[in-house]
Amino acid sequence: MRVEFRVFPPFRLDLTNAQLWQGSEEIHLRRKTFEVLRYLVERPGQLATKAALLDAVWPDVSVSDSVPAISVRELRKVLGDSAQTPRFIETVQRRGYRFIAIVKVELTNGSTSVGDPLGTRSSRNLFVGREHERWVLQDAMADAASGRGRFVLISGEPGVGKTRVCAEFAIEARAKGVEVLIGHCMEQDAVPYLPFVEILETCVDQAQSPEELRRMVESEGPELGRLLPKLKRILPDLSTPPELPPEQARRQLFECFCQFVAHRSRKQPLLLFLEDLHWADDSTLALVTYLSRRQINLPLLVIGTHRESAIDVSEDWSRSLEDLVRSRNAIQIRLHRLVRGEVAEMLTGLSGQAPPDAIVTEIYAETDGNPLFVEELFRHLAEENRLYDATGRFRAELKIDELEVPRNVRLIVGRRVAKLGEVTGKILAVAAVIGHFFSSELLEAAAGASSESILECLDKAEHAGLIAPASQPSFEFSHELIRQAVLSGLSAARRQRFYLDVAEAVERIHSDTLEDHYAVLAHHYAQTAKTWKAVKYSNLAGKQAIQRSAYADAVSRLNAGLGLLVNLPQTPERDREELALQLSIGPALRETKGYAATEMEQAFRRAAHLAQRVNDTSHLFAAQHGLALLFMMKGAFGESQRMAHGLLPIATDAKVPAQLLTAHAMIGVISFWMGKLQTTAAHLDQAIAVYETHPDANQGIVGCFTYGAWTRWHLGFPDQALERAQRAQVVAKQLAQPFSLAQAFCQTARLHMFRREAKIALELGQAASTLANELGSPTWGVEANMIVGWGLAFNGREAEGIAQLQEALAARRALGEAAQPHFTSWLVEAYAKAERYEDGLALLAEALEPPHEVLVYEPELYRLKGELVLLQGASNVGVAERCFRTAIEMAQGNHAKALELRATTSLARLLAKQEKHSEARTMLAEIYNWFTEGFDTVDLKDAKLLLDESKE
Fold first, then answer.
1. Checking DSSP bridges between strand 47-49 and strand 96-99, what pairing results, if any?
2. Shortest CA distance to 647 belongs to which of 687, 617, 612, 691?
3. N or C: more exposed end of the chain, with fewer CB within 10 A?
């Protein structure tokens, strides 16, 4: 009699005689407890729900849901296992249990192994080879467990065993008390950050109550809710994340997810699996890179799998992979095909007996050692009764070519599906349209079949090795190649029909949570004739991607929606749909291609045209605001100003406070850079007045205060300027917006630089730098570093300050942001401190080359040029005087009293050296006497000292 064992050392489970052995000692179990163990061991690595255990072990008896737990406790006692650090049975909170030890199959007849003609055994086939790879992973996990985070990339061709290596390693890790979380990337359209969303959802589902969930997500909850809307439905009182500039919003999201992972890993060593990264979207790749840099000091191991052939790998992934490896943030493991001996070992595991050399040779030659191809070919040959003789033993010889067995997995799968029958074939086809993972509920709704019929078909497909249970009640295809093979067998018409069935089923069964499925619905409807539905969900998915700072994904989805509109008739309804898409894609293009992108200008111009055509003033405001920002960043201030002034009547008529604040702020900021300081002050004051009466209209309000501070200083009111800057910090703290606080620190520091208060500027710059680094904000980080560089130079550390300024200016240019003249002037001043006059003048020549980027700082640039040429030698007096007089004239034209005072002081000092004391005293006294405040500032003190000296 053949005896079947399941072996998980040091135990052996005799399924034939219903016995559990430890060595030579039999361990006696109650019958139902044995059946529970049998059920778990036959499904290693799979979730066994309490309901499934009840159905399998107590099918005809009404018992309490707690009964399986009693059997599990008995099993843990005899196995010497622990619920806290399980080696064999893991508890999946609120759901069931999972057998986590490695299980091997033994089939014996006395002392002789015999074959199983159909290969019917545990779904976990014998794991062979990969000793070196497992050693690398174990070493990485040991490092991670000790607090030295590691990132491992496992690559190889399809079917070579990347997922299997991970699955085996996950079992080992769980047995050592490591928490394992898995996320997948999908080839078909899915939500941005999909693997991280899946990981987060797993964590959320583990929470026993809302209170436990609240403790789990801690302060990161609002940002994590951007990734997983389900979280906000469970915790509806989560605060709304602050509206931040796109780059800052993305960094904030990344930082919060990393903090969530950090908190979790510090409670229990954590292993994250990111499957199929070659299909990752741009946002997922960005978060992968960010996480790889933040994991260094955490008990965290991240393992990512990916294909490496050119046809499977995108340019973005290649670049990200190169960056990860070059920065030494990732260890690479390349999986190669199995050697001949390993194929023989694998066939032994599949069949339960050692195969003859001839069989191994033929199968190895046909598959070249690809594990998936080996298993698929083995199954095919077994089903065709080509492997075994009448006694169940391997045939002595096998000539695969003579049997005309297809070498292509697609054909092998197609034949296997055909044998399962027409009904099962249709069910599998619908499942393939749904995706790699599919639930029985959605499958039932889309296929229009009864649950009993669905389960019967799924049982057949599982028995054939085409699918496997995932988390209850979901299933997955055994390999993505199998799903693709099923999908490729459908005609275009049948595929379109199934896509429509699936899309409509998703809408029906998820009507209350459609926001979780926008991307899926956009993808499915795009394959059908339901164009309007596809456009609608493309827009919703694009907007959702923007909310999650997934800008490349947003551009892709919104462009898809625009493409679908091309062939629709020109109607107001169509115009409104396109208007919504164009307005959404504009900001996304800004983040992916920058302000100079032609596509961005085209999108906003088209949106403005459509808004006027359908008489939609609210969207017209958004389009013109986008254009105003675009032109300002490109330095086209005249066009930007025209657009900004067009915002004001729209906002006034609409009586929308947020629009009114934005319009005044936009006009004020543009006017500042153009040197129209009085106009700037008037509009920024009106923007602040809107905020004070409507505190909810606070977008950009911190900038209104800081720009207002700079404007007050330029206009000659340094104390009022200081009050505005201090108010900016207060408001930023009240709004609880970290990025706004970093902005307030930086821009207040710049005011103190204007006031020549180097120590305070340095302290604020250092605070801003620390905060920006914590937030991962390159924009404010770079600006803070420039401020710190200037502060160092003005606090006696010239060489150090110059080096930091040079590095920060280069970083700013690398970010695609212009090095505006006032930033250049900081380095010029540092050069002057270090007596590097030639370097300073070379920079000034570049900054003063027309056309000038901004006008407000021109007077200061000319003054600096005059000071530097004087320091070069007395022969340059004429050039210096012309520079000072030009600076004075420009400052007077801008009403910039502070810059006029500074330039006049420089000129007066030069005139005094030329014995022109009367002229010097007259002009300096006139500007000095204009001031009514700020007499303790450096500039006014210098002017006063020079005036006093001229009287002597």
1. antiparallel
2. 617
3. C
